[in-house]
Amino acid sequence: MIRLDVVRRGHALKHKVMLGLGKLVIGADPPDIMRILFHRHGFFGKPAGLLTHEVLRGASEWTVGERELFATYVSSKNQCRFCTGAHAAVAGRAIGDGVVAEVLATGDSPSLSPKARAILPFIAKLTVEPNKMVPADLGALRSAGLTDDAILDAAYVVMLFCMYNRIVDAVGCEPLDPKQIVAVSKMLLEKGYEL
Amino acid sequence: MKDRHARLLHALIDAVGGQAGALEPPVRQGLIAGRPTSGAVSAFAVKVAHDSASVRDEHVSALKAAGVSEEAIFEAVIASGIGAGMDRLRAVFRLLGVTDP
Known about the structure:
The complex is a heterodimer. By secondary structure, chain A is mainly alpha-helical. Chain A has helices at 5-9, 13-26, 32-38, 45-57, 64-77, 81-95, 97-106, 114-128, 139-143, 148-171, 178-191. Helix content of chain B is 68%, strand content 0%.
């Protein structure tokens, strides 16, 4: 349950209306993170949404499905149930639920591209042990043909979800229920993250 | 190398670190930079950055009981979340030779 009343209820009229419309569209309460993003929208939600949309939906050597998989994998490593559940569903729509489940269970899947398979261990280490990153960690990525831009794009996914995971945990967002997951994953895949 | 996302990253950091709010901007900027100042709010923010899954209602309640406003707690959570993300990004900036924002 959201721990801050200002996040639960403190929204401008425009965003109160959007939360109400979201409830109609989803047929359930909007995800708790919407209340975080809409609270003082220009302080965090607006600029965070713009960056997130560019990183996850903008031009990149990674497919949208791969980037959503990376977001899911980071969230899983951070044990964030809210983000893992939501983004596993988005990634599953793009690349298949079986591939996502395999990566969450083993950290790998033969169904992925060689480049995606090469960067998953890098993402895991960067998420859990950022202070132990060394130049040798780039070796396997270079061998797989990854460019600096591809590595940096993946690092931005790690940055964003290490950020979101902590925020939703600390504020107390409830994991999505099955009805929310279906509606939200469809919306995120089709519309992205700009609010 | 050129960081294609730098403009939007700066916009996020500037908004959270620079806008007027319940916490003084240097406090939020310190959390984003991974250099928290002293005090109860910063101690909570460090917990958020390093072990957010362990945050419980009572941690937030204790801050409120000590007179910390909900807006200040909100800002500390957001800034420390960004700080944790930036820790990861800076590590890759160092590996790739990207200038730290």
